[in-house]
Amino acid sequence: MCPAEDDKDEYTEESEATASHFDDLIDSLLLQGRNPSDASGLFFRDGKKRIDYILVYKKSSPLVEKRCTFEKNLRAQGLMLEKEPSLTNNDIMFVKIHTPWDTLCKYAEQMNIRMPFRQVLKRPRRLGFLFSILMTTSAYKVWLPRNPMKLDKEALPDLEETDCYTAPFSRARMHHFTINNRETFFSNSTRSRIVHHVLQRTKYEDGKLKMGINRLLGNNTYEAAFPPHEGGYKSRHPIKTHGAQNHRHLLYERWARWGIWYKYQPLDLIRRYFGEKIGLYFAWLGWYTGMLIPAALVGVFVFLYGLFTMDSSQVSKEICEATTITMCPMCEETCKPWRLSDSCVYAKVTHLFDNGGTVFFAIFMAIWATVFLEFWKRRRAELTYDWDLIDWEEEEEELRPQFEAKYSRVERVNPISGKPEPFQPLSDKLSRLMVSVSGIFFMISLVLTAVFAVVVFRLIAMEKFASFNWHFVKKNWQFATSGTGVCINFMIIMSLNVVYEKVAYLLTNLEHPRTESEWENSFALKMFLFQFVNLNSSTFYIAFFLGRFAGRPGKYNKLFNRWRLEECHPSGCLIDLCLQMGVIMFFKQIWNNFMELGYPLLQNWWSRRKMKKGGGTAGQNVENKSQLPQWDRDWNLQPMNAHGLVDEYLEMVLQFGFTTIFVAAFPLAPLLALLNNIIEIRLDAYKFVTQWRRPMPARATDIGIWHGILEGIGVLAVITNAFVIAITSDYIPRFVYAFKYGPCMDRAYRCLRGYMNSSLSVFDMSVLKNSSESEYCRYRDYRAPPWSKVPYEFTLQFWHVLAARLAFIIVFEHLVFGIKSFIAYLIPDMPKDLCDRMRREKYLMQEMMYEAELEHLQKERKKNGLRYHHEWP
Are residue 222 and residue 326 in the same domain, yes or no? Predict the structure, then answer.
C-alpha cells in the first residue's frame, strides 16, 4: 500500500472495500431500482461519480513507490481515485478514476475539444445520384420500398438527435455552449480521452524524464489501463420490447450479431462508443466491401466465360488431340518423353483463367481501384464533416511522451504554435533512420533468401514428381510441384510474419517518432513492406521468372550445375500463378479469421475456467460472470493489440493488393475477398464488442498512411497486370499467330488452328544418346529445327512476339493510366454541396458567436444595473 494515504476514498486493509461491502452495495442499488450488474461497474461506491478509466496492478508488485507517486500526481492534476480488490484474483487491485467537472473543463480547453455551441436542425444532405447509389457501409443500397439492408430507425433511438454547431471549448466563454446537464455534456468517450491525456503526461518519479502510463505498463508497475465498457452486451429481455440497456448492448444487437450480416453498419453509434478512429476503419472496410460487389460480379462473368468456352477452345482441343506429339523429358536422368495429350486437363483448367476476357478484366480492375479510392475520399469528407473532424489534426496533434522524455533537453520554438517544444537534431534523426533502413533491407533480403529456398525445393520436387513411379503423380507433376511448393511457401510466410512484427516494432521505437500518428505511420509502412514482399515475392517469381531462363534441350540452364530450371507448361505458366494466389489467399484468410476471433475466444474461455476454479475476495467461488462488477469482467477480456488498427488495416490492404495486382491471373480473387470481408465486418464487430476490452476512443480524420499505400498498389497493379498479360499469359503469342501466321488470318482473328504446333520447337534427342538414328521431341519455344542452317536459333516469330509484348505493355499502361487520371479529375475529393455547407456553417458560427456575446453582455449589464439600483440609498 502507498504510505500516508489519508484519502477517504482509498482502499486499505481496514476499509469497507470487501465482499461484504460489495453485497451491501448491490442491496442498496436494488432498493434504488438500479441494475447491479451495470451500476456496480460504472460508478464509485457512492453511486454518483462515473468511472472514466480503470488502472490494474498487482499487490505483489515491488514497484510501489512509482505507483504511489504516479497516483499522487494524478490527484494533483484534479483526478479522483478509488481502489477496489478483484473478486476473481486476490492479487489484483483496481484503481477507478473519475474526472470532476472542473478538471474536464480545464483539459477540454487545453485539448481544443469541440463541444456543442447551439442546437440547430439536422444538416441536409444532398447527394448526387451515382454517389447515393454507391454510398453504403456493408453492401450496395437497393432502391426498394423496404430496404432489407437498412437499419430500422426505431432500432437506434439514441442516434435520432438534433445536430449542433460546435466550437473549441473555452472556460471563459462557457456561457456560449449548450450545457443542459453537466453529467452528460462530455460523452463517455470524451471523458476517457481526457483521462488518457492526463495519464500520458503525469510523472511517476521526481526526475523530469519519468512520465506516462505507457512506461508504467512497460515496466509492469501497472498490468493494464483501459476505459470500462458501459455494462453487459446481453440481456434476458428482447431489445424490441424492453430497449437497449446501454450502447454496448445496442451495438451487439444491431451490429455484432451474425444474423444481421446484410444490414448497414451503425457508423454513428460505432464512432460514439469506440471513437472516430475505429469508426473510420469500419466505414472504410464497409465501403471497400461494397465496392467489391461489381468487381466480384465481373470476375465471375470472366470465369464463367472461360468455363463455357473451355471445350471449344482451339488451344485446349489441340493439346487434348495431340496423341502423336512427343514432348521432351522433364529431367535428364530418370525421366522419359511424354505425350502432349497427357496434359489435357491442365490445358482446360488454364483456359478458365487465360482467355479473351483477361485483358478486359485487368483494365476494369485498374479503373475500379481508381473509382474506389476517389469515391472513398468523398465519403471520408462527408464523415469528417458529420463527425466534426474538420481541421482537427492541426489543432490537436500532440507529442509522444517517449519523444518528450528523450529530447526534453533540446528545445526549439514551434513555428506554428510559437511555444518551445522538444526537438530531435537532424544528425540524430538521420543516423537512426539509416539504421532503420538497413534493418528493412536486411529483412527483405531474408525474404528473398526464403523464396530462393522455395525455388530450390520446386526444382528438386519437379524432378522427383516427373520420375515418380505412381502414374497419377507422374502424369500431374505440374500440379504436384506447384501445390507442394505453395504450401511450403505459405508456412514460411506465416512464420516470418511473427519475426517481422517484432523487428518493425523495434525499428520504429529506435527512430523515436515525434507524434503518435508518425509512430503509427512508420510502423505501418514497415509492416506493409515486410509482409508485402513476404507475401508476393514468390508470386512475382512465378509470374515473371518461371520458365524464362530454362534454356533448351541439350543446353539447359542449371542451378548449382545440378538442377534444371523450371519450364512452363505448353499451355502457359498462368495456371501456376493462379494456383499460387488461390491457395495463399484462401488459407491466409482462414488463418487470419481464426487468429482474430478463435484465439481470443479460447483465451477468454481459459480465463473463465480459471475464474471458476479460483476463489473470490471473500473466499467464495465466482460461478456467474454477470455477478462481477464491470471492471472485473473487463479485466478478464483480451486487450486490444498494442499496434491499434495496424493489423486490421494491414490485412485488408494486403488483400486489396492480392485482388488487384495479379487479378489478370485470378479473376475470382474479388469474389473471395468479398466473401471474406462480409465475414470480416461482423467478426471484427463481435471481437470489439464482446471479446476485447474497450479501447481508448481515439480521434482521426482519415485512414492515415494506408490511403497512400492503396494508391501505390493501384499504380503497381496496372504495371503488373500489363506484364502478366504480355509475358505470363499466352494472349500475345495467340494474338500474333492469329494475325500473322494463322491459316485464316485474313478472315478471322479467332482462327488458331495449328497454334500449338507453331509454338513448339523440335529437338533431336540423338544428340544426347549419341545415336545415329534421329528421334525428335518437342519443347515450348520459338527456335529453328535441328535440320535448318542455324539450328536452335530464335525464329522470326519469336521476335514478332517479343515486339508485340513490349508494344502491348506500353499501350496498356498509357491507356489505363490515362483513363485513371481522367476519372480522378472528373471526381472531386469533396462534394460541392459539402463545401457550400461548410462555408455556410462558418458564416453562421461567426454570427451566433457575436449574438451570444452580445446577449451575454446585455444580461451582465442588466444584472449590474439592478445591483446598482438596490445598493443606491
Answer: no
